[in-house]
Amino acid sequence: MVASVSSIFGLGSPEQYRDHVINLRVGEEIERNDLMRKLVDIQFERNDIDFQRGRFRVRGDVLEIFPASSDAKALRIEFFGDEIDRIREVDALTGEVTADDDFVSIYPATHFMTNDTIRNRAVKTIQAELDEQLKKFEAEGKLLEAQRLKQRTEYDIEMIQEMGFTTGIEIIHDIWMDESQGNHHLRCLISSQTTFNCGR
């Protein structure tokens, strides 16, 4: 059987995912820049040239969003001042308008959504486990492994603090879900960066 890492370790919290959905309605007052910040918060990336799933772009008073769940449909949000004047579904490739909507929901670009409390707790847990593992490596004379682990994990911590996620975050899934269950998967992360063995 072949399975992805995500399917093995599970997805993120459904509650956190649901809490980060952005709902937009024609006539709603919201500043364009505020909406852009909200999109970044749910892991969308701004790219005005290479328009792909999970990205958005800005053209004057028009904000176009390519939902992560869509293969060809994008959303065009047209502003009049700080008010949403029109919401349209468009072909992401040609820009052709395919439908007009009064209301849309924009779902996060990734399943792993967290709030500040969970993120800060996870970082503390990762840092504590890292310190413990570094001491073990140093005691065993594995200085190269310790250096590699320290560099990679500190990079991951910085990404989590700044962006809310990092590559391979599925491996430490349980840290987000339940602090008491985090140790095995963090050990798996540490092991994968040194010996590529995620056994218990």
TrEMBL record:
Q: Does the keyword Coiled coil apply?
A: yes
UniProt GO molecular function: ATP binding; ATP hydrolysis activity; DNA binding
Pfam families of this UniProt entry? Answer: UvrB_inter (PF17757)
Q: Does the keyword Protease apply?
A: no
Q: Which UniProt keywords apply?
A: ATP-binding, Coiled coil, Nucleotide-binding
What domain of life does the UniProt record list for this protein's source? Bacteria
One GO CC annotation: excinuclease repair complex
Q: Which GO terms describe its biological process?
A: nucleotide-excision repair
Which parts of the chain are coiled coil? 120-147
Among InterPro entries, the record links this protein to:
P-loop_NTPase, UvrB, UvrB_inter
Q: Which parts of the sequence belong to the UvrB interaction domain?
A: 22-112
Record protein name field: Excinuclease ABC subunit B
Could you tell me which species this protein originates from? Weissella viridescens
